[in-house]
Design goal:
By secondary structure, this protein is of the alpha/beta class. It has 14 helices and 13 strands. It has a six-stranded mixed sheet with strand order 4-3-5-6-9-7. The chain has a three-stranded mixed sheet with strand order 10-12-13, with no helix packed on it. Helix 5 links the parallel strand 3 and strand 4 (107-113). The radius of gyration is 23 Å and the shape is globular. The protein binds S-adenosylmethionine. Residues 92-98, 113-116, 119, 134-136, 152, 154, 174, 387-389 line the site of S-adenosylmethionine.
Length: 407
């Protein structure tokens, strides 16, 4: 607990963030309250009115806990930069892939929103902040002003009700909530990320509505969206995503270009675990037979979809949540010597060295630094990384956005 009295030496008043976090959790604060308190503590140095202070102080008073933001030692893997070059907000934040990229460019995140409790947990461990929940319930007045809005909004099929295909026709969709915040806060730039399929969805009408809203209703300068493959930016994963960028001012728009692919061409070998991994990642012979049968059935129907073993000098398929997500990216690893199962499996562990990738390998496929903490179960971790973004592709594009804004 925080030392009582007021010692003269400021250093003795310092409290580690991880201890504070533990204490707050022991008080049984709701996630919404943790969001308010952690946003307050994170935002004290931004040099503008801290939107969260009144409510946070009230919550802290109620639990009889005193802490000044300046007395916190941020012993977390991804603290905010001490002297931020710009501010941003992180919507549909997931586990903070976009935040990781934008912080690495010198950005200070002043607001985050993500409603999945397990993703919030991972975010808290890594960034010292609990994102606010449901974006549809967040008033624009609750959101601080910011320079860049980033949002990996979920692809949500929407059909266009009205003839014009603009702002009002997107009402009830999550894109509408992104647009409403852009409209209210007028950031210098935004960066929206979505699945490649958005481009062809409803024969292109959905994307046309999105662009029409951003360009004509909100008055932003939006270059033609680009499909970007993570593989071209230093991770061994074929992951194509659509990037939609916008600028408030034409001068920035005219200076922007999408980043050129890097020369780095890592392969699976570069992201593989350094040590022998648990037998739990190795499949049983019986399960492999099921996978082989499944593939044969699908191949005979003409769709080649099935499990896939990626060689050490290969590149992974896009990691995705659910379905055959993990089975499409099996690897060969002969280092295992002890084959007794540690989990309940049917039959014997295979001796061909075939295993799933580990959550850490998925983290690396997305370009997360190894200091990124994975505090959740494997099942949750696969979901969280599969849902996330390839950090280096975001960072490369973000860098060009900032250059355009600066010039
Ligand atoms: C594609 S993921 C984005 C991942 C994120 N960009 C990252 O780097 O990890 C979309 C996220 O939006 C969240 N989400 C969906 N609907 C939401 C809502 N109404 N309010 C807040 N978050 C929401 C989901 O839980 C999911 O984590």
């Amino acid at each position: 607990m925080f030392p009582s009295g007021s010692p003269k030496d400021a250093r003795s008043r310092m409290m580690k963030f991880t201890d504070l976090k533990k204490a707050l959790q022991e008080f049984g604060l709701e996630t919404d309250e943790l969001a308010v308190v952690s946003h307050y503590l994170q935002n004290f140095q931004v040099g503008r009115r801290n939107k969260f202070s009144a409510e946070a102080k009230k919550i802290l008073k109620e639990i009889g806990f005193q802490i000044e933001p300046s007395e916190l030692k941020w012993n977390i893997p991804f603290p905010s930069p001490k002297e931020p070059k710009f501010t941003f907000i992180d919507l549909f934040a997931g586990i903070g892939g976009m935040r990781t990229a934008f912080q690495s460019l010198g950005g200070k995140c002043v607001f985050s929103s993500e409603w999945d409790v397990k993703a919030q947990e991972t975010y808290f461990e890594n960034f010292g902040e609990v994102p606010f929940g449901d974006i549809t319930k967040i008033e624009s007045s609750q959101v601080p002003s910011h320079d860049v809005l980033v949002a990996g909004f979920p692809c949500q099929a929407f059909s266009i009700a009205g003839a014009r295909g603009g702002f009002n026709d997107t009402r009830g969709t999550l894109f509408f909530d992104v647009a409403r915040l852009i409209k209210a806060k007028r950031p210098d730039a935004f960066f929206l990320e979505n699945v490649k399929g958005l481009k062809s969805h409803d024969r292109g009408k959905t994307l046309a509505t999105i662009l029409n809203t951003l360009r004509n209703d909100l008055g932003y300068y939006v270059p033609e969206p680009q499909i970007v493959n993570a593989r071209n930016f230093g991770v061994p994963q074929n992951r194509e995503r659509i990037f939609i960028i916008g600028f408030r001012r034409e001068s920035a728009f005219s200076k922007f270009s999408y980043p050129v692919p890097s020369n780095q061409r890592p392969t699976i070998r570069d992201i593989k675990e350094r040590d022998v991994v648990s037998v739990k990642y190795y499949m049983s012979n019986q399960y492999l037979r099921t996978l082989e049968e499944h593939r044969r059935r699908h191949e005979s129907k003409g769709n080649g979809f099935g499990f896939e073993i990626i060689s050490d000098d290969g590149v992974a398929n896009a990691i995705v949540v659910g379905g055959m997500g993990r089975e499409r990216n099996l690897v060969i690893d002969h280092r295992l010597k002890e084959f007794s199962p540690v989990t309940k499996i049917k039959g014997e562990v295979n001796r061909r060295g075939i295993r799933r990738m580990t959550p850490r390998e998925w983290a690396r496929l997305q370009g997360f630094p190894d200091k990124f903490i994975i505090p959740v179960s494997d099942a949750q971790a696969y979901k969280q990384f599969g849902n996330s973004v390839a950090v280096p592709a975001i960072a490369a594009t973000g860098r060009n956005i900032l250059r355009a804004l600066e010039s």
